[in-house]
Design a protein that fits this description.
294 residues, alpha/beta, globular, binds 3-methyl-2-oxobutanoic acid, methyltransferase activity, transferase, Pantoate_hydroxy_MeTrfase
Length: 294
Amino acid sequence: MTHSESASSSTPGETSAPYGSGPAASSSAPAGRVRLHHLQAAKAEGRHFAMLTAYEQYTAEIFDEAGIEVLLIGDSASNNVFGNETSLPVTVDELLPLCRAVARAAKRSLVLADLPFGSYEASIEQAVTTGVRFLKEGLAHAVKMEGGAYYADTVRAMVQAGIPVMGHIGFTPQSEHALGGYRVQGRGDDAARLVEDALALQEAGAFAVLMEMVPAATAAQVDAALTIPTVGIGAGNVTTGQVLVWQDAMGLRGGRMARFVKQYARIRQDLLEGARTFGEEVRDGSFPGPEHSF
Ligand code: KIV
């Protein structure tokens, strides 16, 4: 049985409430752990789910409490944690501790780990080995990997090994150089290629397919062709799920934002003001006051 098949069935012995009956009014996440079959049910019932990146304990705790259904330890940690310019340099050994921290903190969210560049391309064996490491050492529940039909056999082997896989098509940041930079994919006739890629991933057993920077019309074609959930980032609002990098969505990262980013908080400004005030109070001697001293 593939994960897409098992995802649509109920889970015997599962104690969590059915999808949609969770306590958080603002979220449709279940009261217990979000499972693949909850995401599949969202697709089947025409509902949406939310996904944010997380790379450490506190944001994972907060997003979990907020009812975000999926937390992604993205290879975007390369840019957003380790200070690299692209996602390419980050390694499995760098991502694993971040993944463990998120997995320990997340009580309900499904924990999804990105396979970084260089950790799955060489062979099916390499991909299975890396996937196993993320579930075993990283405590992830599933992995995401970039690439389309070319990786169908790899996905099939991973799924058979018990590793749930989300595909990632459209703009794939690990292929930034091959793709000639950050460019929208799947315009016009190229939409058919994305549909073929997505169908091949579904047939191989992927439990979902993420689309990055593709026209909404193309995303709609892909979503309509699939029975498994889709997730979008810069792919319009037709997909089952939506994902954003948390530092973009919550306003920690400064600078220019991509068109598809919406900011829901202004964390950078709060931190800046807090740090400035702390510095001033230390320098003028008003901190620590008597109430903070023994
Ligand atoms: O690593 C990442 O942040 C991603 C995005 C698509 C969310 O893969």
